[in-house]
Amino acid sequence: MVLVICIVSLVLCVIASLVLGSRPVRFHELIDGLFHQDVDSYGANVVRKRISRTVFSLFCGAALGVSGALMQAVTRNPIADPSILGVNTGASLFVVCGIAFLNISTANQYIWLALAGAAITALFVFGIGSMGRGGATPIKLVLAGAATSAALSSLVTAIIIPRSYVMDQFRFWQVGSVGSATWSAIGTFIPFLLVGLLVGFITAPALNALALGDDVATGLGVRTGTLRLIAALAGVLLCGATTAMAGPIGFIGLLSTHVIRLILGPDLRFIIPMSALSGAIILTISDVGGRLIGSPGELEVGVVTAFIGAPILIIVAMRSKVRSL
């Protein structure tokens, strides 16, 4: 039933993304844009332009949803998310360094730098959070992520302020948007998405064992260190690739995973694929909402998800604190 509801919601979100915006599209224009390539009306062209944007938002939402689920499973932290752990900011720093010092400008160049930045930042945050008594506890990981994100954001600002050409290229990307989607960018993104999703689906049963504790998981034959490394790399791959293509969009992993966990329980065999669906739905509907709120312009989707996600994060953190007491 949940799967059917998600699929229906996804279809409705796709239709809304194609029809709604600063220029609403009528039904016959939607049909012309989708099925009648010989029709060259303004409405049909608007629909064709929005198709790539809609596909891109679906893919990015799915990637961020699965990335959040994997990071929460690996760290055993209910509020882990690429944006909260500073991974997005690390990817942003490497991209802005590439723009400023290496003169990069293409999606292929962005994606490798973003992946390197995301991976290094994830390792750094986990290393800092693991220090001291108790190891990598959820609160220590969040604090390490917040501190790292603040420091890296300062470095990003220090690099772009004296370089106006970098600021012009970087400022729109930094907010997080799917509006500049092209089929070329989607083609570049798909291999990373498929590898990350495949690894997430394959590791789900072992991650269920990991949730019982390292000792129990080892007794069940799980190599906990190898599993954490592989699952974390998949999460970083999905997050880094998305950040390179669309900018640092936050809170999708947190929102989608928590919604699914509340409905279906803790089994990652269901959470990971359903987080992909719910992440695609949340990001796509947030993009539509940004277009409607900012009409005749648009509000970037990263701003919309931040407005939605920040209160949810506070609520989740408060509930987690109450349970721990």
TrEMBL record:
The chain crosses the membrane at residues 51-71, 83-104, 110-129, 141-161, 181-204, 244-264, 271-293, 299-318. It is found in: Cell membrane. Its main location: membrane. GO terms for biological process: siderophore-iron import into cell. It is a multi-pass membrane protein. GO terms for molecular function: transmembrane transporter activity. Keywords: Cell membrane, Membrane, Transmembrane, Transmembrane helix, Transport. InterPro entries: ABC_BtuC-like, ABC_transptr_permease_BtuC. One of its GO terms (cellular component) is plasma membrane. Belongs to the binding-protein-dependent transport system permease family. FecCD subfamily. This is Iron ABC transporter. It comes from Paenibacillus nasutitermitis.
